[in-house]
Known about the structure:
Layout: H1 14-40, H2 47-67, H3 70-110, E1 113-116, E2 124-127
Antiparallel strand pairs: 1-2
Helix pairs in contact: 1-2, 2-3
Amino acid sequence: MIVAAITLESFFTPLALFGFTAQLCFMMRFLVQWFVSERKGRSHVPVVFWWLSLLGGGMLFTYAFLREDPVIMAGQALGVFIYVRNLILIFRRRNRINDRQQERAAALAAGTATVTPDPANEATPTTDP
């Protein structure tokens, strides 16, 4: 059996410090999600969760690449893809919502929209057909 000797000096190499920083970024996403969920009183995944996931995952992938560790690289590569995809979905939705709000505001300003009740909001402007 091979036993690796871990010395205190091995914790302070530039690569190890980079790896610890990467792991800290990756771990912070859970703390942020927990904090936000506690404040909201319900489970919630904020956008910063995905940014921290991407940053930490990318750094961990780099760390694994530098250590020539294909196991960690494979695990982080899939994760990074998923984090990017979630951010794309989030920003596409935000753009659609902003576009709708601008269209409704323009319709209200032009006098071609009415305000109808919406259970989700107090009032939602809609355009007339």
